Amino acid sequence: MLINGLITEVEIIDLNHTGQGVAKIDNFVVFVSGAITGDVVEIEITETRKNYAVGQIINIVKPSEFRIKSPCEHYEQCGGCQLMHMDYNEQLKYKKNRVINELKRSNVSFEESIVYDTIGMEDTYRYRNKIAFSVIEKNDEIQIGPYEQGTYNTVDINGCMLQSKEADDVVKAFKNLMVKYKIKAYDKNLNRGIARNIVIRNNRKHDLMLIIVTVTDNFHNKGELINELVSLVPNIKTIVQNVNNKNTNLIMGRKNITLYGEGTIIDMIDDLVFTISPETFFQVNPVQTEKLYQTAIQYADIGKHDICFDIYCGIGTISLMAAKKAKKVYGVEIVEQSIINARENAKRNNINNTEFFAGKAEIIVPKLYKQNIKADIVIVDPPRKGCEKEVIDTIISMSPKKVVYVSCNPSTLARDIKLLESSGYKLQKVQPVDQFPWTVHVETVVCLSRKNPDDRIEIDLNLDELDITASESKATYEEIKDYVQKNHGFKVSSLYISQVKRKLGLEVGTNYNLPKSEDARVPQCPPEKEKAITETLKHFRMI
Ligand SMILES: C[S@@+](CC[C@H](N)C(=O)[O-])C[C@H]1O[C@@H](n2cnc3c(N)ncnc32)[C@H](O)[C@@H]1O
Fold it and tell me: Which Pfam family is one of those matched by this entry (predicted)?
């Protein structure tokens, strides 16, 4: 057993999914932040648990051949990037291996040769078209930036190498004008102040949308602030004030007030034009998005008689690309504004074989199926938690010839592929795409085909046990359970997770794990497990 304070030398043999180096001391796993495969490092053990320990680097004895010097002055502190000390080609290999490992962990049957090399970027900086920063006041100074690694402290940055130069300009100008016009940053503890966050979006033409998230509707010098911002950064085409007066970790509230311009910006993917609103999802790396979507459309292999479903369709990006080839495309999405944009986008692009539905996919898709609307080809692009079981079950019942799955989380992707595989689908191709250079994140497109066209499996849908976890949630129940098991050495149930989430004010389905009868006795999460779950939710930045 290792003890805290022990100083020892280790060789890093692997990199885990959060980007920590993995070493072994007498077969006991040690995680080392800031180390990469091939490094030999002197470490101090700072934390010991039942199944693993954590070590902190004291000295790099022999650097890995893939170690590079990070070009970002904020890298050590900032939580945005995790791999800026690693050669880019190695990152691409790491991402491919992550996908392979997750497929293996879920027992999916596949040959490694069907997993292609990660599609990388040529120009790996300034690729993001959206950033969200917190605004705080510290020692009488306004600070704006991302969160520090593993905490909710703000890193006051001069610029971010992943965002556009114009976005850097907006951050500087906004900070100076907050000082000039005495606009206070919101202090959560004292419940005082105005500005909470800023969100900046840009399109490929470098037009900017600035979203200022405030606690109240009104604040002094609003007009002066807007006029000066626009003259200092002429690329700003629209400014929206978003009001969020809730005690929540979600950045944006529900109310938007357009202060300047149209309240939307326009961007293009391929030859299609899209309207983007403050709250709508749009992939953050436009260069790679084209490659991602082109792969998805190529895998779908849509014919002119095919009915297509685009589930989790956002503003209809994939739907419109599919509609150019299909007989008809049905898009389903939970954010109502996105569906309004999707319908407008179809019109704007003269596409008239699409139909969009606003609502939860787990409700809408089974409903469509009950109305005898079935897909020949299904494309899904869910959030990190993957597809709800009702969606997978309905896809299986519909029995489309192909399912194309676009995913930002290899772990839930592998889980859902296994479900499809168990019901008659075969994994054909897997293409990782690097949407997020310098971070551990990876996007993947996979193609599954129905093994036997005559296989149809009827499944009863159970809709009353839905866990309608917020779409912004970053980890699934399975991921939370896995993390607790690995890091705390015990199991926790979905019931306990939902109790803790509810206690912390996170959204869980209204009927998820509630007792069926009023006087039912429900076991309560013990304090030790509550602590572990809370720590895990923090790890996944859900609180
Ligand atoms: C990864 S994004 C993909 C969007 C779109 N395909 C694109 O590439 O722009 C996932 C989308 O799923 C939506 N979403 C989350 N939970 C949902 C649910 N339960 N039902 C339907 N849509 C959901 C989100 O609002 C988001 O637009």
Answer: tRNA_U5-meth_tr
